[in-house]
Predict the structure.
Amino acid sequence: MKSPFEIRPPFGRLLTAMVTPFNDDLSIDWQGVEKLAAHLESTGHDGIVVNGTTGEAPTTSDEEKIEIIKVVKRATGGRLKIVAGAGNNETSHSIEQARMAASAGADGLLVVTPYYNKPPQAGIFAHFSAMASATELPVMLYDIPGRTGVAIESETIVRLAENPKIVALKDAKGDLASTSWVIKRSGIPVYSGDDILNLTFLAIGGVGFVSVCGHTVGARLRAMLDSWFKGDIATAQSIHHELLPVFTGTFRTQGAILTKAALNLMGLPGGKVRLPLVDATPEQISQLREDLRAGSIKI
């Protein structure tokens, strides 16, 4: 079994799940999409995840999702890995989304556990296996039971990791003991899906982050990663402590809401959110401003 430092990150070490900027009329701000992708590239990212939870994928159409992939791919010129969310709670539609994402130029797929219908582990295994077979693209599993209602059990992850098309796991389960065993048993590359646990994931063998706070503190997350993998643990820990106000503040309510509010405060394209999300209130924005400043973000 490889040591954690020998597990290679298939999509690089730093990715951010990008928001989808909306205009006041809730149409997509396409210039904003380009500008935001360029911002992420400039702050040390290896990849961008589009059409995920933070991208408000439940409220964007299939046609919008495809265009987002194309615009972000064009804006980054092939220099970053573009991983596209392509999963929902219907396997046949998920397969269609995966194939459309591949045709649009995505470099990989982020596939979430089917939500709401609470499939048994056999169904979860069959769903992910079908998604892996749908295209030639590599697949990152996404385990977030707080949203989906059901976890991918460790035994299921270990079995799925045997599939050569399933190359990574985005872990937002918050069960570090189980994840430690998954890494030991399977060697699957694991990305932290919970910013406040980023450093902890590295300690148990994670390979990188699929971040939300990378919108606002991407350069410092890059520095944390670089420090850790150089063996400079003290610097990585110092950065983690500096960023705690940002990690906490970004998730005082739903992450896309406050991330967009933070981008707006920073003069970057965040824009509005689509229902059933609602824009941050003045009180929430005031608290967010304090949190960002406590994390040394100049606004």
In short: The CA atoms of residues 139 and 167 lie 6 Å apart. DSSP finds twelve helices and eight strands in the chain.
